Amino acid sequence: MNANLIEKVNKLQDLFAKVGVQNTGIDLPQIVVVGSQSSGKSSILENIVGKDFLPRGAGIVTRRPLVLQLINRNPQTSRAPSISRTSGETPVITEPTEWGEFLHIPNKKFTNFDDIRDEIVRDTASKAGTNGGISKDPINLRIYSPNVLTLTLVDLPGLTKVPVGDQPKDIEHMVREMILGYIKVPNAIILAVTAANTDLANSDSLKLAGEVDKDGLRTIGVLTKIDLMDPGTNVVDILAGRVISLQLGYVPVVNRGQRDIESQKKITKALDDEKAFFGQHPVYQSMSQVCGTPFLAKKLSMILTGHIRKSLPDMRAKLSSKLLEYRRELDSLGNDVTDESSQAYVMLSLIKKFSDEFFQVLDGSFPDLDPSVVSGGARISVVFKNNFSPVITGMNVSLDKERTRVEILNSSGKEPKLFPSNAPFLKLIKDQIMRLEEPSLKCVDIVHQELSTIIKLLLNRYKVFNRFPQLKEFFHVVVTNHVQKAVKPTKKLVRDIINAEATFINFAHPKSVGVDDAIAVVQKNRMGTGTRDPAPPTPRKFMSITRYLETLLNKVKSAGGVLEPPPEMLKPISGLSEEDRFDSEVIELLVKTQFNIAKDTVANLIPKAIILRLVNATMESLYTELHSKLFKTEVMGRLLKENETSAERREMCNKMIAALTKADEILTETVGNIETAKL
């Protein structure tokens, strides 16, 4: 069961490696090997595997993370066979007992471990160059063998101080950051390798591990080069935790030295020598059963298995969350729209959705309106009720008494005034009514601005526009122009309403005051204030045309027949006859009465006109307008051209969903097996 758990995690590693582990956001339990250059990391791994397969040399040899998955297999287990043949004989099918597989070279088995080393060197050079550079891209290697325990290890570049070759000046920082990226996650078990013949307090690996695992709960120490320690020294105090305490403890090992490697000493012989060293050493022989590479491999396998068990619930929760996240993103990105049929579907759906939601926002039935503020069509209603209507009904008659006198005088024309004329009243009331035009036209502009705000609101809601920026821009232009086209006829209707009010004064209106009634009101008011009734006409004290001619003739006579030009401006002379005063009051009353009627009419009709010609006309014809402008093959082909980022994200989401779905199946099966084993 323990080996099965590790193999399940290996499958997850392979799945995530194909899509980029960093994209999953799920930290898999794994053992990360950390150590400085020449600390013996590679020798430990080769001793665990029992094979020479890692690159050797001076400086940084491990220049990319190596995810090493060891799979214990029974030699009798059926695997893909290899074929060998001797001359003149029938091919004999033989089965390799040990081989390696690289994730980047699927379906190829490396039975020669020298070839594995060569492939590591080749693939490293392809990403990190050939002169000492490093790369974060991992190499995934799986080794099947009856001589290994099922185990997963991640070998990282050794900690270094001085750059060589193509290495950048900050190589120390780069390696350090790469290592921290692996060991800082809580699911990482840190295998800190330190040479025993150095001061443990100066161990780079333990120092780095201590930065992310301050209590030493997930760090296991490996002490190498035990056989090279000075005579009379040992690591007993370290093993007992009296120097630097680690919860998982320390394991001492003896590796092959450089001379052993150069003389091609077999690993099997090296393991035998290691066993003999600890078994015969006067200090270590009593604890030899917890020393050496075989014990280290067993301990690591046990630790990793327990860590996987403990991490399963959290892994499943994170996996489910990530799966939901990628499905939502994929849904927001939508399907691929490279063919005409899919483009037509997307465009028609968008046109219908926008048209429907534009109507719903204005109608008040849109489900996503902000409940905390007045929005949508309700704002237009507020404009009419709280802004436009109070402004119109609050306007008062603005009459200048001198202007009224002038209009009365001018109405007589060239003849002396014998009877009151309605011309002054008509001129004055028209001017007053035309004052209503400016706020009415401004109301059209305000409603137009509200419609523009609604358009922006809806356009910003659609994630499809993130995929097609050209579509959003063109869509906005079409809708904005469509609304703008309705402004001109709306303003024309508004002007017609104002002009209609000013053109014909309806004295038959229920609220209208007739001339006789107005005279009666004025007389009553004058009596109430003690003012005399109109006296018989008295000579008017103004310079009428007749009076001006008489005066002019007298001046001509007195000047000896010399004719003088009239003044540029003729105004009433000071003072006003009682009759003219009375006429002015009557006219002013009539103007005020009819202006109030006009205000009520305008306050009532202008909102209706705006709703009819601007709001409803735009709303009802929007779908047709969008369809005619956007639903064209050449237009759709141009506008539904997806940006590269969206296409890449969709591809990534599909890959991640496939990988995470498969991972969920693996974890579900694993948890089920564990529960079954408990029964």
Give the topology.
Elements: H1 2-19, H2 21-24, E1 30-34, H3 41-49, E2 66-72, E3 82-84, E4 92-94, E5 99-102, H4 113-128, E6 139-145, E7 151-155, H5 171-183, E8 188-195, H6 204-212, E9 219-224, H7 236-239, E10 250-252, H8 258-262, H9 267-280, H10 293-333, H11 340-363, H12 377-393, H13 401-410, H14 423-434, H15 437-461, H16 464-467, H17 469-503, H18 515-528, H19 545-558, H20 578-630, H21 633-639, H22 644-678
Parallel strand pairs: 1-7, 1-8, 2-6, 8-9, 9-10
Antiparallel strand pairs: 2-7, 3-4, 5-6
Helix pairs in contact: 1-10, 1-22, 10-22, 11-15, 11-20, 12-15, 12-20, 13-14, 13-20, 14-17, 14-20, 15-17, 15-20, 17-20, 18-20
Description:
The protein is α/β, with parallel strands linked by helices and 679 residues long. The chain contains 22 helices and 10 strands. It has 3 domains: 273 residues, Rossmann fold; 268 residues, Dynamin, middle domain (Four Helix Bundle (Hemerythrin (Met), subunit A), Up-down Bundle), CATH 1.20.120; 26 residues, no CATH class. The protein is rod-shaped and about 150 Å long. The two termini are 14 Å apart. About 2% of the residues have low confidence.
Entry summary:
The chain has 679 residues and is of the alpha/beta class. Helix content is 56%, strand content 8%.
Average pLDDT over all residues: 83
Strand content: 5-15%
Shape descriptor reads: rod-shaped
Radius of gyration in whole Å, from Cα? 49 Å
Oligomer: single chain
Q: What is the domain total for the residues?
A: 3
InterPro entries: Dynamin, Dynamin_GTPase, Dynamin_GTPase_CS, Dynamin_N, Dynamin_stalk, G_DYNAMIN_dom, GED, GED_dom
Family: Belongs to the TRAFAC class dynamin-like GTPase superfamily. Dynamin/Fzo/YdjA family.
Keywords: GTP-binding, Nucleotide-binding
Domain GED: 584-675
